[in-house]
Amino acid sequence: DVKVTQSSRYLVKRTGEKVFLECVQDMDHENMFWYRQDPGLGLRLIYFSYDVKMKEKGDIPEGYSVSREKKERFSLILESASTNQTSMYLCASSPPPGGTGELFFGEGSRLTVL
Amino acid sequence: GENVEQHPSTLSVQEGDSAVIKCTYSDSASNYFPWYKQELGKRPQLIIDIRSNVGEKKDQRIAVTLNKTAKHFSLHITETQPEDSAVYFCAASDDYKLSFGAGTTVTVRA
Asked: CB-CB: which of A42, A100, A106 is closest to B93?
């Protein structure tokens, strides 16, 4: 079974703090994705990566950055957290090709910014 | 970018009845259309998908239809059961990234 592990299930941070969300997959997938999930808005793509050290902006990249130093690890960074970034964050991985393979999701990280 | 609209946002059906969820997409380059199911408190999981060279696909009680000319696709669930209660997301992809609809909360009444 593919396993996508997100390091924190629940986080509470203060406005202006730097936040790191870590994601690790164990199936040697090339593609990794970060989505945020909000009620009534579905899953919105923040960033994705098709290879080590490679990143592409998704639909809502503002206020976020990512890092992929190793194939199995994809990190989402909030440089200065704001209250409107309170959300559920879902990491996913997939084998190639690109966006047309099954996505395997992590359990999610629920972030609250006070 | 791709814009995927999904309707209805909520759907309540009697056990044994059918449920239909409809989605439209904007980018004619999209060629892959999966459906994900998310049970309460769990991660989304793929339940069925269809590619642009196919008009219909069926897997037991679920089926998906695609109309590329009209840019819409639908999920059909027949003989609904309580375990079908969940949030369903449609999505569209152009080979690079997957864009999701807003989701449909399906409740199956016993």
From this structure: A100
Q: B23 and B73 in contact (C-beta within 8 Å)?
A: yes
Express each pLDDT in B100-109 by its tens digit.
999 999 999 9
Rounded Cα–Cα distance for residues A49 and A108 (Å): 18
Give the rounded distance of the alpha carbon of B25 from its chain centre. 12
* pLDDT tens-digit map of B62-75: 999 999 999 999 99
Angle at B32 between CA A29 and CA B60, to 5 degrees: 95
Contact residues for B85 (Cβ-Cβ < 8 A; gap 6+) = B39, B106, B107, B108
pLDDT-based confidence at A98, cuts 50/70/90? low
Q: Does B60 contact A at CB distance below 8 Å?
A: no
Q: Are A106 and A5 in contact (CB under 8 A)?
A: yes
Chain B residue numbers with beta carbons less than 8 Å from the beta carbon of A98 are: 93, 95-97
- How far is residue B4's CA from residue A5's CA, in Å, rounded to a whole number? 28
Question: Tokens 């593919």 sit at which residue?
Answer: A2
